[in-house]
Amino acid sequence: MLQSKLFYKIDKNKSADVESVSHDLLTRAGYVDQLMAGVYSFLPLGFLVLKNIEKIIRENMVDSPMDGQEIVMPSLTPKENWVKTNRWDNFDVLFKLKGAGDKDVALAPTHEEVVVPLAKKNVFSYKDLPFSLFQFQNKFRNELRAKSGILRTREFLMKDLYSFHANQEDLDKYYEKAIKVYLNIFKQCGIGKLTYRTLASGGSFSKYSDEFQTITDSGEDIIYICQKCKVAVNKEIKAENSKCPMCGSDNFEEKKAVEVGNIFKLSTKFSEPFDLKYTDKDGTDKLVIMGCYGIGLGRLMGTIVEVNHDERGIIWPKEIAPFLVHIIELKSENKKIKATALKIYQDLQKQGVKVLYDDRTDKSAGEKFAEADLIGIPYRVVISEKTLAKNSVELKERSKSVVKLIKINQLLKSLK
User: Fold this and answer.
1) Following DSSP, what letter does each residue of 300-330 receive, concatenated?
2) pLDDT digits over 62-100, tens only?
3) Which residues contact 169 (CB under 8 A, 6 or more apart)?
4) pLDDT band for position 241 (50/70/90)?
5) Which superfamily does 325-415 belong to?
6) For the domain bounded by 3-310, which CATH number is listed?
7) Which stretches within 79-193 are classed as H helix?
8) Which of 33, 149, 236, 338 is 20 to 30 A from 172 via CA?
9) How do residues 247-294 score in pLDDT, each as one tens digit?
10) Distance in angstroms (rounded) separating the CA atoms of residues 303 and 306
């Protein structure tokens, strides 16, 4: 991508009224744009990051023990489904609308009211179980106070997976596999070392649910990390757990954290109101047992920035970054500089390397470097008269201070 053609705008000045580092950096660097409170556009840079996150999640939903099948369900949902689950009047963030013919509908904040009737059309026998369905879909929640940029919004992209089982034992086994898969997702996204499985309230579903909390000073939640088994406990249930529910230790460390994912054992909470049953081997009808597993992609993106930045800007993990390499051509009367920069750009692209090429001629070296640091692409490659004289380029990792002089013909090898 040529930076001169990129749809973005840099804001050099730190915002005075933002509530989170990620909000400040993502808006100033041209990744997202706020339309109104809790509603954002993802610009080309932000869209590329979002798609990289989506790719990691999708691969972990399909090519893993979760064995998910991808679908897309509607966001516009009928009132009668929410009445059946007793959530039309009891889901405090539900967006309610009037459709044609004065019909009441809701914008889905979650999709149990859609996926369960869908499953009912396909589940008849124990032979139809187990299975799991997932989607990437916009959710709508009428939050009283949207805050912290894309960490808490009123419209957001979410991966939600629903699993369907014949019995509790099968759900329990699947659930434990899901925990490992989720931890692997966060590891691939570059926040694994700071993300903990966290026991939280299971509500009416089960004794506990599992959150995945990432340590950051901007976190909304307080968690207590067991220093023995490294499983955390959310503050909301810590009062009833003086010892770790997993290992019995009483040695905890208190930390602020952001929730980046959660999973629940739903049991028959939603299969019962829709009469989702199957016929067992002995010919008896039984309710299907369910689990649900969610990750908000925008919230995960914001959290990645919260824990991967410095005073100059974002430091993207390589797997998440919109581009791997940021080529910066320094202004010169020597036409060979531009020709060399263009050739490196084209050669890297031919090798499948994602490259942003700063080809602009109206920016100083200082301006280009400052923008590069703010945008946060993992590798910066500088071509100038000084480097060209040695048939080399300057190579710098965004996460490190050292600058290396690399021969042009060794650049691809150095990046790999």
Assistant:
1) HHHHHHHHSEETTEE---TTT-S-SEEEEEP
2) 989 999 999 999 999 999 999 999 999 999 999 999 999
3) none
4) confident
5) Anticodon-binding domain (3.40.50.800)
6) 3.30.930.10
7) 79-84, 112-120, 168-188
8) 236
9) 999 999 999 999 999 999 999 999 999 999 999 999 999 999 999 999
10) 5
